[in-house]
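Query structure, 223 tokens:
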């Protein structure tokens, strides 16, 4: 199974790769995860989320109009065939240099063509002593896009949350790792299914897992 690590030239049709994005200090992202609206499509109020879409034009990041997230039931048996709407990313977050570096790390690594649409999901999963948090309530799945990037911002007072990649749903994972702060996992969505295990707190306090998930195409529609 091919693994392409940092410093190795990626082919366009790469399988998956794990990068540590050293140019990004994740501390600058953390405050923006404290005011995320609760995801209304998931029962339990343990997931919060924002979503915007962009294109890269030269060295500029251009935000596209508001859209609706749509996946078919083939890819998302839990929430497929539902037009989902989420609040946009905070404007102050988008202006951060580290945010632009994150999107450029994704586009450069995946060798996206110019004007490719990129969806950026900002997601917090919480857990408490009474309730586990489930980063992937739809189970082992594909997103129905070309490329996925999962960037870890913060893990606080949690255990679990290990990301797995599979060549088929009923096979054993070919990749299993807890993504630490600053790590970016890039995945060819045509080749792999993915899943992240539930999280629970290490102490009696609340635990959080904060990530950005990037997709191209964006899976957003304007109507």
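Result returned for the query:
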């Amino acid at each position: 199974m091919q693994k392409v690590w940092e410093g190795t030239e990626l082919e366009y049709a790469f399988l998956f790769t794990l990068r540590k994005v050293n140019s990004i200090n994740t501390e600058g992202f953390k405050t923006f995860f404290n005011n995320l609206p609760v995801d209304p499509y998931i029962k339990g109020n343990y997931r919060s989320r924002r979503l915007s879409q962009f294109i890269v034009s030269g060295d500029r990041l251009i935000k596209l109009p508001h859209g609706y997230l749509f996946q078919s039931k083939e890819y998302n048996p839990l929430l497929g065939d539902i037009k989902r709407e989420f609040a946009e990313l905070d404007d102050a977050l988008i202006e951060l240099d580290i945010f632009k570096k994150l999107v450029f790390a994704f586009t450069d690594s995946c060798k996206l063509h110019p004007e490719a649409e990129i969806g950026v999901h900002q997601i917090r999963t919480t857990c408490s002593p009474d309730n586990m948090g489930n980063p992937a309530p739809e189970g082992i799945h594909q997103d129905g896009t070309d490329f996925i990037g999962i960037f870890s911002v913060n893990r606080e007072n949690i255990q679990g949350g290990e990301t797995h990649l599979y060549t088929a749903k009923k096979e054993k994972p070919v990749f299993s790792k807890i993504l630490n702060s600053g790590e970016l996992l890039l995945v060819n969505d045509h080749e792999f299914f993915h899943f992240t295990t539930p999280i629970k707190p290490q102490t009696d306090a609340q635990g959080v897992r904060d990530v950005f998930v990037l997709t191209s195409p964006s899976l957003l529609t304007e109507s």
